């Protein structure tokens, strides 16, 4: 079978791999679409310390159930469209014992700590397969990245009385915007790209801030009547956006961090104490976040076509990643179609 493989920094090839054989309790899925995410781009650029090359990237999966082994529930049938929860969980670490398998201490995510799904077939435990008769494989490929944003909103415990600033309107930020709006919050979207901000507005953001052309502090002061946002969700992973989150959040506010910076960051730590802040990490997503995204997408209000920047064949993966690296601010999601 074909498998897109990042061989070394900025070198991608399509290699031939053996088709996986089913083990007891596993499902063989035929891959239709796989999305490239930021971690894949960092792997391509040689900036992902968690990856050991060569690696098959991809954990944003739209697929069809190809075959089923024994001991798989009857609810999973051949021919069903599906996605796959791409994280592992050990079951015994502190995170797993506390009911947070998404943050498993020993997690191995597809395309990062282990080979991913950018190939023609993968075999996975049935517990990781999510099927829905009303979804198609292309739409399923958008579920995982949006679920990461949904999970951040859950971590922030957002309600309808919150002013929420989402920093970064890429795919994960979009998920956070959508979920916060669904919870009734007033959302402020911040980015440097006007097209992304316009989409955020259509998704329900009440206010937008272009951090490249506007004074962020002045605009937030105006929008929140001087209080600052109750919640800030950081979905970029840059020193300046982390600092903005801490500096601008309201007293006794919550800061939720999804992105992680590649360098150390200096903070005014007095704000941690003076504001009595809750600073929370948000990693991956829970099964209920996947289900919530699927239900949202089935409503028919999600602008799915706008979230797909381009679709490439496996042989064009190098071109896709190189183009993204040259113009990162203009990409929502790039899909590889098998």
TrEMBL record:
It comes from the Bacteria. The chain crosses the membrane at residues 164-182. Residues 172-298 form the Alcohol dehydrogenase-like C-terminal domain. Keywords: Membrane, Oxidoreductase, Transmembrane, Transmembrane helix. Pfam families: ADH_N, ADH_zinc_N. Residues 24-130 form the Alcohol dehydrogenase-like N-terminal domain. InterPro entries: ADH-like_C, ADH-like_N, GroES-like_sf, NAD(P)-bd_dom_sf, Zn_alcohol_dh. This is Zinc-binding alcohol dehydrogenase family protein. It comes from Dysgonomonas termitidis.
């Amino acid at each position: 079978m074909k498998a897109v493989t990042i061989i070394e920094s900025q070198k991608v090839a399509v290699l031939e791999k053996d088709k996986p054989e089913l083990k007891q309790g596993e499902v063989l899925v035929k891959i239709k679409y796989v999305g490239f995410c930021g971690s894949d781009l960092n792997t391509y650029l040689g900036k992902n310390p968690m990856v050991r090359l060569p690696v098959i990237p991809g954990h944003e999966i739209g697929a069809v159930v190809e075959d089923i082994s024994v001991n798989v529930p009857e609810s999973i049938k051949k021919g069903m469209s599906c996605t796959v929860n791409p994280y592992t969980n050990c079951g015994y670490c502190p995170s797993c014992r506390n009911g947070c398998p998404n943050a498993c201490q020993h997690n191995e995510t597809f395309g990062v700590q282990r080979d991913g799904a950018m190939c023609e077939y993968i075999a996975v435990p049935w517990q990781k397969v999510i099927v829905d008769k009303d979804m198609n494989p292309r739409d399923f490929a958008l579920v995982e990245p949006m679920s990461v944003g949904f999970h951040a909103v859950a971590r922030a415990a957002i309600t309808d009385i919150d002013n929420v600033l989402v920093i970064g309107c890429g795919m994960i930020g979009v998920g956070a915007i959508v979920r916060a709006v669904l919870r009734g919050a007033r959302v402020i979207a911040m980015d440097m790209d006007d097209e992304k901000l316009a989409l955020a507005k259509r998704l329900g953001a009440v206010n937008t801030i272009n951090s490249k052309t506007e004074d962020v502090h002045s605009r937030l002061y105006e929008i929140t009547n001087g209080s600052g946002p109750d919640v800030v969700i950081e979905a970029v992973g840059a020193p300046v956006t982390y600092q903005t989150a801490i500096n601008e959040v309201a007293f006794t506010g919550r800061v939720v961090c999804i992105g992680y910076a590649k360098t150390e960051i200096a903070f005014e730590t007095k704000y941690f104490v003076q504001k009595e802040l809750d600073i929370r990490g948000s990693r991956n997503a829970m099964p209920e976040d996947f289900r919530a995204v699927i239900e949202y997408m089935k409503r028919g209000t999600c602008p799915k076509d706008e979230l797909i920047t381009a679709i490439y064949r496996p042989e064009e993966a190098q071109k896709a990643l190189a183009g993204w690296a040259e113009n990162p601010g203009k990409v929502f999601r790039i899909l590889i179609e098998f």
